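pasting for the record
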Amino acid sequence: YTTPALTATSTYWVRATNAAGVADSGTVTATVNAPPPVITPPAITTAPVSTTINSGGAATFTVAASGTTPTFQWYKGASGVTTTPITGAAGTTYTTPALTATSTYWVRATNAAGVADSGTVTATVTSSEFVLTTSGIHGTITGGGSYQTSASVTISATPDAGYMFSGWTGDASGTTNPLTFVMNGNKTIGATFTLIAADSDSDGLSDHQEVTVTGTDPQRADTDGDGLIDGLEVNVAHTNPLLADSNSDGMNDAYAFCFVGNPIHPRTGNEVTFDLGKLITAGTALKLSGKLPKGLKFNATSGLLSGVITGNPGTYTAKINVLQGRKVLRSSVFPITVQPFPSGLLGDFESILEDSNSIPIGVCRISIKSAAQWTATLESAGSSMRSAKGTFVVDQEAPTAALVASFSAASGSPQTTVNIVIDGGNPIITGTCNNGTVRGFRLANGAENPPLDLSYNLVLDAGVQDGFTVPAGLGWMKGTVSKKGVAKFKGLLGDGVSSGFNLRLSPAGQAIIWAQPYKNRNSFIGGIITLADTGQTANSNQMLTPGVWWYKDVELASASYPNGFPGMPVTCGTSKWIVPSTASELGASLGWRDNRTTSVTIDGIGISSHPPSGTDEHDDEHDDEHENSSKSTGSTQTTVAVLPTELTMDNQFNLYSSAPAVSNVIAWNGMVESKGGGVTGNLVIRDGASSLGISGTASASGVLVQNDSWGTVTGCGLIKVPITGSKGKFITAAFVLEQ
């Protein structure tokens, strides 16, 4: 039997019937169960929201979902990607761990009817700074400042002498020192320092600090024996109280601490000061004994050991006793090592004094023979030689010294003060004088001098002049340069006045000229010259700009130019002289073909070797030069008979005129001095000279030059031309010999 569709539990039974009777079954029940519930699929009703947090912070996300009893699972990453489920994240709320980088998340709701996924949410991490403010009294705290969020920070508390650290206050607590924590916000932390009374050795450090912090001996004020008590080393000098020379610079800590300025091992000549008062505390005093470098003095009141060291180099060991009354609290040695005086400052120095227009006014010579001691002389226009002496101080940082030489007024000249700076590493010296400047150099010594003795000639050229009011002659000097660096010259200035130079060479072959060959002391010739080809090592950094100035004041008794002449620049030409053995060898050294000069130029005082009209003894080029020279003097040249245009030297070194080949040529009769390169001659001037006021026998003198730097010029000099009617009086003209 099949029942119809049932909606409620029902019972049934069955009877079996036949002719014999009936049989009934028992009751059976068709139990109808309740219908299954309806399951609603999940849906996200409140989605999680993205958020922004500081680095090191955590983000919290929340979700809500409808549907029949959903379950939740949170994932890291983009929505729908299930490869990174988050263990244990199965609720409606999820809090991330501390994040330092931006991260994404999503959540899935699940029931028997299906799943629902949220969108992707982002926890954006930003960086920010927090400020740590620290404070403490009777001690210091290191580590304060600005830090990034979640940064790990360590602070340390250091007590002052006699105090101990006892704990943190503010945003920290406890006694851990140093203390490390994470910066998760602005913090203010203080330290408490409490007084420790026990300081057994009175060194400024508590016994507790010495034992637990510095490792020094609480029963010994100066543990390392360097002269600085432990408290000074730790709290003031900031040196190691366990090492006598904390930085291994060769100076013990007490020496470096007391040295006023940048600590050095001083040289002889240095001015130094040690403040030994820094080694003691209130209620104590110093006593200094032992040997000190000469020049240093100790002032027990101020505690200063100071002065200019003048003693010999070496190590001097002084002894310092720290006293309390008469009791010696402690003793220590105080070594002072003195280095030698800079050798570059020893020697002789010469300098030219120049006014504001760079015109020489005198020469100053300085000699330094011993440490920090100098002597000097001054020669100047209008005055006799003056002298001075004194001391100086060597710069601590470099081997340089500033000298101040004061020369008293004399002979109408005012007091003169010369300020000079000498650099031991450079022979050039510079300075100032009264309204002017000083230029000079250290004189050469030893290997700086020329390797050989030399013969040498000088030519002093003041330019083209008229000869009447200003000398037209070319001055000349013959002399020698020795391998000791001494040069001696004698000759004539351009006005025919005898003069001489005794010179000393610089390492670069320069020399200071200063001569006053006239009776009037206002007159002089002075400046700087360069002697070429001396064999010295030339260094442009050791050379001064050369230049010579020549001035003659009125001197009525003078044989030439009694009215004087204005100051003027002079060019000094130089040439080594190599002594020839024969006249032919001499001529070859000068480039004289057949021992003849191809050109003789005579100029000045209205006379000229320019040939008379109609002759062709000179080439056109020489004529042009002569014409230009005549124009530059502004004077009118007059031909006095015919002057020689060519000279010939015979085998006996006689020098005579050989051109022009005309009957009225004025003969040149003279000699060449082969040993020194001098040249002489006489010319008798008569015809045509009366209008110029000159006549008689004119004497010529000069020097020959062999150096290639002279080009075609082979000799220069002057001619003393007598003034008519004035016995012994003369003016000068110039002559130039060429190849």
